[in-house]
Amino acid sequence: MEALRVWMASSNLLGFAASRATKAAPAARPLRLHVRSCSRAAATTKPPSPPPQDRRRRSASSSSSTSDRESIRAIRLKKVEELRGKGYEPYAYKWDRTHTTKELQDGYTHLENGEVCADVVVSIAGRIVARRAFGKLVFMTVRDDTGTIQLYCEKDSLTEEQFEQLKAFIDIGDIIGANGSIKKTEKGELSVYVKNFEILTKSLLPLPDKYHGLTDVDKRYRQRYVDMIANPEVADVFRTRAKVVSEIRKTMESFGFIEVETPVLQGTAGGAEARPFITHHNSLQRDLYLRIATELHLKRMLVGGLEKVYEIGRIFRNEGISTRHNPEFTTIEMYEAYSDYESMMNLAEEIVTRCAMATHGKLRVHYQGTEISLERPWRRETMHSLVKEATGIDFNSFGEDVESAKNAARALLGIKTESSENISLQACSSVGHVLNEVFETVVESSLVQPTFVLDYPVEISPLAKPHRRYAGLTERFELFICGREIGNAFSELTDPIDQVQVCLVFLMHVNCLC
């Protein structure tokens, strides 16, 4: 069987990662998709801790900011009470709108400056993100899910009570509904000429400063909803993600795959090497694990007779956390019988290119200033060839001489005896492990354009089928784009005797480490 995991980072790229087969079943391939959503801005590195003096200043500034927010909250709570005292409910049940802001912007772009469509009545709703008052005239910018539009509020067009409410009770951050006609101002700004409005939700806290936005990296991660208000482009990441997941489903269905759901709570954490989260089932009076992969249950579906299955599901791994790694993430893992890693490469290309066309409409995309060409076919090279190309060292020449391979790697990488890199290199138990160490250090970051790295050493791919032509290698590939591992797949090891032997060796290795 063959395994493949696919994930999309918060960039506009889609990628792949790996799974392994352990049950006797027809030759099959699995696919996992990890979809991680975060804006490029939000994925910046957290700045270093400030010196003590700056920390004191920040603390004082934070205290002042908290005090200001509480004062604003108290003022707005008083406005809520006053509105209710006047018979208005500041938290409405419903508002009937006729258009989104984008529909209005698209539908009335032809109006001339100063032109009014008095015979048209529209109704919109959204959050106020800007407000300017000039005597008998108030301008407000309203944002909804699709964009923004200006509200043109003239005293002569509203009742005196409504105009006073507009000036005294409405704040930036409030959600309002408004109806009226359409006009384009003398300066060319398309606007809703407001005849009536209603406060739908009274905001109790201010929005981030409009000039500086929400810049605190930690807050952007922890309060994504505020991030989306302050930085509207962040929402595009979620829209792109939704399109990618939808396109993957369409692609899988077009190839005849069946989507299934498997248990999240499992008696054994299997399918990957990862530390699981442990929870307790009260009725069963036993501990259970949150799954670290969907692999094992999907393989059982193959054993049961289904030939093409996949699952989009949540995965939980109790390990490190960074802008690249989240303890919980979404994967799609799929299995197809009677297939190997060659056909999985074709499937990987198919999924990525279809998703690129669905989200961008083209196969050339830009990522952090680099143009990535997703046009097929993608480059395919063996790990040995790529390392030799980058370093001039042919690791095949070392045979099984691990020490010679280590010495060559130390000289190449400039590793000192007391360094942590040397400790990692010294732990390599075979030439294959040393080769992989050099590949990850030297070659990986240089693989910018889509590249399939083929035929990994058997020592680092124990559950992949041995290569049918080259001894000591396996039928495995990893896909790299922009210097990142995007996918990992292989022809699955289906010989049950070999599987048991591999598992025993692995358990012995774990016991030695313990």
UniProtKB/TrEMBL annotation:
Residues 238-489 form the Aminoacyl-transfer RNA synthetases class-II family profile domain. GO terms for biological process: lysyl-tRNA aminoacylation. One of its GO terms (cellular component) is mitochondrion. The keyword Protein biosynthesis applies. Keywords: Aminoacyl-tRNA synthetase, ATP-binding, Ligase, Metal-binding, Nucleotide-binding, Protein biosynthesis. Residues 37-71 are annotated as: Disordered. NCBIfam families: lysS_bact, PRK00484.1. This is Lysine--tRNA ligase. GO terms for molecular function: ATP binding; lysine-tRNA ligase activity; metal ion binding; tRNA binding. The keyword ATP-binding applies. It is an enzyme of class 6 (ligase). Belongs to the class-II aminoacyl-tRNA synthetase family. Pfam families: tRNA-synt_2, tRNA_anti-codon. It catalyses: tRNA(Lys) + L-lysine + ATP = L-lysyl-tRNA(Lys) + AMP + diphosphate. Gene3D superfamilies: Bira Bifunctional Protein, Domain 2 (3.30.930.10), Nucleic acid-binding proteins (2.40.50.140). Its EC number is 6.1.1.6. InterPro entries: Aa-tRNA-synt_II (IPR004364), aa-tRNA-synth_II (IPR006195), aa-tRNA-synth_II/BPL/LPL (IPR045864), Lys-tRNA-ligase_II (IPR002313), Lys-tRNA-ligase_II_N (IPR044136), Lys-tRNA-synth_II_C (IPR018149), NA-bd_OB-fold (IPR012340), NA-bd_OB_tRNA (IPR004365).
